[in-house]
Write a structure and sequence with these properties.
It is a single chain. Strand 6 (160-168) and strand 7 (171-179) form a beta hairpin. The longest helix is centred in the N-terminal third of the chain and has 18 residues, at 19-36. Helix content is 35%, strand content 25%. The protein is elongated, with a radius of gyration of 21 Å. Strands 3-2-1-4-5 form a five-stranded mixed beta sheet. Strands 6-7 form a two-stranded antiparallel ribbon. The protein has five helices and seven strands, in the order ααβββαβαβαββ. The termini are far apart. By secondary structure, the chain is α/β, with parallel strands linked by helices.
Length: 191
């Protein structure tokens, strides 16, 4: 069988599948793979599906939110969005498909939402959420906490820190991270 005929055969079979049933089967399989290898870090991120734009039919590229199993190097699930700003509505739907218990979920600043954090916690996972100016008051308060702690050499503040140096692609990058669970100075509205 030639490459073209094999491609046509596979396309014919896949086009006959129910997308929802396939998604459920695929999610079940990825859960089984994940359970077999133990807990892991799950990275949630939005991307535009490469090659999904169809200019002839006037269709724009398809934005997707994906869950990436870092240990298994496997996409655990995906949810399409109508546009980039709809990641906030797609993330909870994607999280519902996943077995999160005992895992750590990371999401960039787009997913830094109280309801998303609560859902991850309710599903038995921990989370690391990116924080940028999109969360004005919280962002400002967290900056103040770390600025004050750094100015005092973190005296009396339980914390961890790490420094990474990366000398790739002709540039030197030094990243410093400070981590603390001492949130007592944050306002109740920001927690």
């Amino acid at each position: 069988m030639g490459v073209s005929r094999a491609h046509d055969c596979i396309a014919y079979v896949i086009s006959g599948l129910s997308p929802k049933a396939f998604q459920e089967c695929f999610a079940s399989w990825t859960r089984a793979v994940s359970e077999a290898t133990g807990g892991e870090l799950i990275a949630i991120d939005g991307k535009t599906a490469r090659g999904s734009r169809d200019r002839r039919r006037g269709k724009s590229a398809l934005p997707m939110v994906s869950a990436w199993g870092c240990r298994n190097r496997l996409v655990l699930g995906q949810e399409a969005t109508a546009e980039k700003s709809n990641e906030i509505t797609a993330i909870p739907k994607l999280l519902e498909l996943l077995e999160l218990k005992g895992r750590i979920v990371t999401i960039d600043a787009m997913g830094c939402q109280t309801k998303i954090a609560e859902q991850i916690h309710d599903q038995g996972a921990d989370y690391v959420l990116g924080l940028e100016g999109n969360q004005g008051t919280l962002h400002d308060e967290v900056e103040d906490v770390f600025a004050t702690a750094r100015a005092g050499g973190f005296a009396g503040v339980a914390h961890d820190d790490i420094e990474e140096t990366d000398n790739d692609h002709g540039r030197l990058e030094v990243r410093r991270y400070w981590i603390t669970e001492e949130l007592g100075t944050l306002s109740e509205a920001s927690r």
